[in-house]
């Protein structure tokens, strides 16, 4: 059975889609046996390359049948064709077609990578082949660092790495000077002698004459098929060929059998290779990469920063709200707008308010500044004369001693409870203050307790600079002039009843006083409104940030489209050497993902730095890890989604067109 058998193969381009029909190959019948060294010769434009593409399963004939090893190639799907190209064929092109970003050795490894050969096998084989071809000193050179002859030898090594049962060489010496061309021809002759089937395509009859069989093509038709004239002279070599073919079939290959990966291992290695390739492309196009990255960096950083600042602001408001109490109302006397004397909140008012069903507790307070003296130290402090519910209503426990009782309030007892900072000023040595007499406006008061530190929790340290005396003590003894200025702190049963309580309270006082001689302050409602605006603002800023992330994604798509266009040739090479469509897809998606991951990581780092700086200058920020991770993941997703279209474009390229492309 012949290795290759073409029956009535024709190929035409165009015709169906309105383009002019170009008949390129007509009714080619051809059989090639394993181990033959065949030259296909013809003038330029006669259809040789087209024939080679069909032979190499890179292109399908318009009609006719192609049997490879007895199997009809037309019945194979694209994956099987990729496998056949990879395992049976090795291509050598006039233009070498090496991947410019990869080293000589990596170029040789490409077909083995797609064949799933594991890394060590791949590297040893590639190194060995390159050594055999005299390139041991150039393993790590890029194609641009190699001469034409060296590049062609690299491409021959690449053709051989998976075995290279059939070497298809299209004008392999076309771009070389005659001496280097000779060397390449010697190599091919040598390969033929070693049992490879070599199909040499050339327009040069002299070169063709070096093979055993010359097939001549003119205008797409086979016009000659003759065994070499110098048969006698070649015969001995031919004999040697036969024996060598036999020995090769027994496996004289000196290198150890390559080992192949399991599917998952192969996937891993291909991904790693794709990452490496992507990384190099990014490095080579540094400026462009940077600009693309910038879009994503700004996107990710702004998302994270906006969220952190928004959340920080929200937490600050929440903290204030909690410090004030989320369900507190304040009521106090004032001069009515309509004129007349200033209002007074009476004990009767207090009792009536306390009766409201929405109200849990009422604290009446009178306050003023007073000179406080203990020993040699004296200082002005704000003294609050409040009812005994103060610690409960403000959720403010004592650090030492006790708070005054309602009885002490009623009895106008001269007792005082100190705030933390006041205590520390008068008792810097932490001595026991309880039972000591302290002078307030020159009258003695007994210290019965010290409040815990409030500022630590709420951020309002001025709370800790207060002193508390019983309400009636304040009104009667300390500042009788202010006795009518009690204001009330009203604790509502729950924070969602604050609005309702406010209305009830207002109605009640209006009814009792007959005029509006009081103020009502709903701090909680104000804070809640503030919180809502902050939330909206955060949402809006995050939205803007997300849009910038999207714009970054569009940048990725743009760059990927450019990359695909620039690397059409590389894609062609990869497909010709056996890459599946999905390998190409994977590679370009990996590139997109890598750019966006890199951008995301840099953006996240940048945002951390900026957030740290903001925190240092005192802007309230709250960094959330989920926002950070979320933004990076979003960036990668955006990159992949926007990279998908260009990647599909790349994967769908026709290898023949791609190889011809610039
Ligand atoms: P050779 O390799 O012998 O120089 P080719 O096989 O490259 O010739 O091309 C043979 C003929 O087919 C040429 O006339 C060329 O213009 C034509 N041809 C090749 N590819 C295409 C194509 N994709 N569309 C239309 N015509 C094509
Ligand atoms: Mg050609």
Brief overview:
This protein is an alpha/beta fold. It contains 22 helices and 20 strands. The longest helix is centred in the last third of the chain and has 44 residues.
Describe the structure.
With 662 residues, this protein is an alpha/beta fold. It folds into three domains: 34-57 and 78-255, 3-Layer(aba) Sandwich (Rossmann fold), CATH 3.40.50.300; 279-317 and 530-660, no CATH class; 327-522, no CATH class. 50% of the residues lie in helices and 20% in strands. The strands form three sheets. A six-stranded mixed β-sheet has the order 6-7-8-3-9-10, sandwiched between helices. It has a six-stranded mixed β-barrel with strand order 12-13-18-15-17-16. It has a four-stranded antiparallel β-sheet with strand order 2-1-4-5, with helices on one face. A hairpin with a 2-residue loop joins strand 9 (213-218) and strand 10 (221-227). The chain is rod-shaped, with a radius of gyration of 45 Å. The structure holds adenosine-5'-diphosphate and magnesium ion. The site of magnesium ion has 3 residues, from helix 1. Residues 48-49, 170 line the site of magnesium ion.
Low-confidence sequence ranges: 230-253
CATH C-level category of the largest domain: Alpha Beta
Helix content: 40-55%
Total number of domains: 3
- Ligands bound, unique: adenosine-5'-diphosphate, magnesium ion
Mean pLDDT: 86
Taken from the alpha-carbon principal axes, the silhouette is rod-shaped
**Number of distinct beta strands:** 20
How can the largest sheet be summarized? Answer: 6 strands, mixed
How much of the sequence is in beta strands?
Answer: 15-25%
> And the CATH topology of the largest domain?
Rossmann fold
Radius of gyration, taken over Cα atoms and rounded to an integer in Å:
45 Å
Total number of helices:
22
CATH architecture descriptor name of the largest domain = 3-Layer(aba) Sandwich
């Amino acid at each position: 059975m012949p290795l290759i058998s073409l029956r009535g193969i024709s190929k035409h381009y165009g015709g169906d889609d309105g383009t002019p029909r170009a008949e390129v190959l007509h009714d080619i019948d051809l059989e090639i046996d394993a181990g033959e060294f065949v030259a296909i010769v013809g003038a330029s434009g006669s259809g040789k390359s087209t024939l080679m593409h069909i032979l190499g399963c890179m292109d399908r004939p318009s009609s006719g049948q192609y049997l490879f090893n007895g199997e009809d190639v037309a019945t194979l799907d694209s994956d099987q064709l990729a496998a056949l190209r990879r395992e049976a064929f090795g291509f050598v092109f006039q233009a070498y077609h090496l991947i410019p970003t990869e080293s000589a050795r990596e170029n040789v490894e490409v077909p083995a990578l797609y064949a799933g050969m594991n890394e060590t096998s791949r590297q040893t084989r590639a190194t060995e082949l390159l050594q055999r071809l005299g390139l041991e000193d150039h393993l790590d050179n890029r194609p641009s660092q190699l001469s034409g002859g060296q590049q062609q030898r690299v491409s021959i090594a690449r053709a051989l790495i998976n075995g290279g049962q059939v070497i298809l060489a299209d004008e392999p010496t076309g771009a070389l000077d005659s001496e280097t061309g000779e060397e390449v021809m010697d190599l091919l002759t040598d390969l033929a002698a070693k049992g490879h089937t070599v199909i040499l395509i050339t327009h040069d009859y002299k070169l063709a004459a070096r093979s055993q069989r010359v097939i001549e093509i003119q205008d797409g038709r086979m016009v000659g098929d003759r065994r070499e004239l110098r048969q006698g002279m070649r015969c001995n070599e031919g004999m040697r060929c036969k024996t060598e073919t036999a020995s090769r079939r027994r496996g004289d290959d000196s290198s150890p059998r390559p080992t192949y990966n399991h599917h998952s291992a192969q996937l891993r290695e291909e991904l790693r290779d794709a990452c490496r390739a992507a990384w190099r492309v990014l490095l080579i196009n540094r400026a462009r990469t940077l600009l693309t990255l910038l879009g994503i960096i700004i996107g990710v950083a702004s998302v994270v920063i906006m969220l952190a600042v928004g959340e920080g602001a929200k937490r600050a408001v929440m903290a204030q709200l909690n410090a004030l109490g989320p369900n507190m109302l304040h009521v106090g006397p004032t001069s009515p707008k309509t004129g007349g004397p200033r209002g007074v909140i009476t004990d009767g008012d207090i009792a009536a308010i306390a009766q409201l069903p929405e109200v849990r507790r009422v604290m009446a307070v009178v306050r003023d500044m007073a000179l406080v003296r203990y020993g040699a130290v004296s200082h002005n402090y704000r003294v609050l004369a409040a009812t005994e519910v103060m610690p409960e209503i403000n959720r403010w426990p004592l650090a030492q001693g006790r708070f005054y009782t309602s009885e002490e309030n009623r009895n106008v007892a001269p007792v005082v409870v100190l705030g933390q900072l006041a205590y520390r000023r008068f008792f810097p040595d932490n001595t026991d203050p309880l039972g000591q007499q302290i002078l307030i406006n020159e009258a003695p008061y007994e210290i019965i307790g010290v409040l815990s530190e409030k500022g630590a929790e709420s951020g309002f340290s001025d709370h800790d600079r207060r002193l508390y005396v019983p309400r009636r003590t304040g009104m009667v003894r300390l500042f009788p002039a202010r006795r009518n200025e009690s204001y009330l702190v009203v604790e509502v049963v729950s924070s969602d009843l604050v609005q309702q309580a406010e209305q009830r309270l207002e109605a009640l006082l209006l009814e009792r006083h007959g005029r509006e001689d009081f103020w009502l302050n709903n701090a909680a409602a104000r804070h809640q409104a503030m919180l809502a605006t902050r939330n909206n603002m955060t949402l809006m800023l995050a939205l803007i940030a997300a849009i910038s992330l999207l714009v970054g994604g569009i940048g990725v798509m743009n760059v990927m489209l450019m990359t695909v266009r620039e690397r059409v040739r590389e894609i062609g090479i990869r497909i010709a050497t056996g890459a599946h469509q999905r390998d190409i897809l994977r590679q370009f998606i990996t590139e997109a993902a890598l750019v966006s991951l890199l951008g995301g990581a840099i953006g996240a780092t940048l945002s951390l730095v900026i957030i740290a700086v903001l925190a240092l200058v005192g802007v309230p920020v709250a960094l959330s890890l989920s926002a950070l991770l979320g933004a990076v993941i979003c960036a990668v997703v955006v990159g992949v989604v926007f990279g998908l279209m260009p990647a599909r474009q790349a994967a769908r390229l026709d290898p023949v067109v791609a190889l011809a492309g610039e």
